[in-house]
Amino acid sequence: MSHVHANNNRRHTRLACEVPLEILTETVRFVGRVTDASRSGVRLRVPGAPLGLYRLAPAAMVGRQVGRILGIEFEARFHPERLGSLLSRRLRPVRIGQCHASSADVELGCVVHPPLTDEEAAMLGLAIPTLLSDGKEADLRLEAQGPRVRDDLVSSAPRIRALASPPPASPSGRIRIAVPEEVAAATAEQLAVVPKAAPRRAPGTPRPLENPAQQDPDDRERARRSAAPPSAATQLSAATQLSAATQLSAATQLSAATQLSAAAAAPSSAVAHSPVARPSRGAQVSAAAQPTAANQPAAATPAAAAAAGSEAAPRLSLAARETWRAYVHPSGNRRIPPFVARMEMVSITGVQVKVLDRSLLNVEGGIDVASTMAALGDAYGSEVALRLVDGATHLWTGPARIEMVEVGQAAPYPVTLWLAYSRPLRAPERRALDLG
Questions:
Q1: Which terminus of the chain has fewer Cβ atoms in its 10 Å neighbourhood, N or C?
Q2: What is the pLDDT tens value at each position of the chain, 436 positions in all?
Q3: Domain at 317-432, CATH from 3.30.870.10, 3.40.190.10, 2.40.10.220, 3.30.420.360
């Protein structure tokens, strides 16, 4: 199941996908891919080389090259290898970004005109929700399927009779041949009459004879002695040795216990300087294995566990508060006042801000996203000074880079920007932004 991107500002549900796309322009033709899609919009990732872009290109250059090569709208074919020119649409970019510092690829958010139908979405493998009569989405989703084949071609195709499969081959590569039942039964009878081999004789033991009378007298005497029970003298000697060993072991343990008790009763200074025998390794292991009140961990309460989990896993992003604002100052010696934007989201890598009216940016040019990104780059530069505040309280100030620009489709054409920090956040800065 594809992952759903929740966004209340979108008209339709977007689904993550991987669909190849062919972009057709008057000058170039190249291939990109769709990373997520809905009925009325798609997000693309296209290579930067056909657009004349390189890694970490300035924002003004990215916007200018996209506008020059792709224009306000361009034609695209979805999955051309499977569908050919069956599914083609006009796409209008509304978001441009170069969000990967290790690649020159460009991300484009485009409006699909006209929107995809249920059949076209199912052919692309998108299980999007169905639409109701009022234009809203229902809970029922479409069934994703592949491109259909004409029924007349399937019915007119010649039918080929399936041949019997060859006999299975063994791992050695030889073909197994079935043996008749008569031959198999005769072979089993021959194997049944073969006498079983006698077990191997242990080294040093005399060879058994069929007639015990033919055995040598010395061999018979040795066999009788080995089979006879041990004598009383032998049993007494073994018992004496066992008793002596037991007494020696008990005396050794008593001596070790006496030395340990004496060492425990002596002062610490005497223990430090007296050559007291250390306990054995087994005694140390058994003593360490026994639980004591000193080494037993305290029972963790649910509140303590929750606090420890929150400290160990800081938040990576969160929605900004209503009172948080972002001041974007131009870089270099540009004499232009900063613009104020409302913060929508803050993370450990950057912030997303929104200007409700494009006219507040003090930039010229067209209202399309490519012209707006180029004008922002020319006026403020790609590297800007970002200042985050909560009313009169200062939160964070530092350098940032404009990586993404999105322009709304209706007046007053709100502008959304993604600003990435030029350096990682420090621990106090994370705490000031409620990131832990």
A1: N
A2: 333 333 444 567 888 999 999 999 988 899 999 999 999 999 999 999 999 999 999 999 999 999 999 999 999 999 999 898 899 999 999 999 987 888 999 999 999 999 998 889 888 888 888 777 777 776 667 665 554 433 443 344 443 333 344 445 555 545 455 556 665 676 666 655 555 555 666 665 556 555 555 556 666 666 666 655 555 555 555 555 555 555 555 555 555 555 545 444 444 443 344 444 444 444 444 444 444 444 444 444 434 444 444 444 566 878 889 999 999 999 888 889 999 999 999 999 999 999 999 999 988 889 999 999 999 999 999 999 999 999 999 999 999 999 999 999 898 999 999 999 999 999 999 999 999 7
A3: 2.40.10.220
- Please tell me the CATH code under which domain 4-132 is placed: 2.40.10.220
Task: Compute φ and ψ for 143, nearest 5 degrees.
Answer: -95, 115
DSSP 152-174: HHHHHSPP-PPPPPPPPBPTTSP
Global pTM reads 0.59
Quick one: tokens of 54?
A: 């390189």
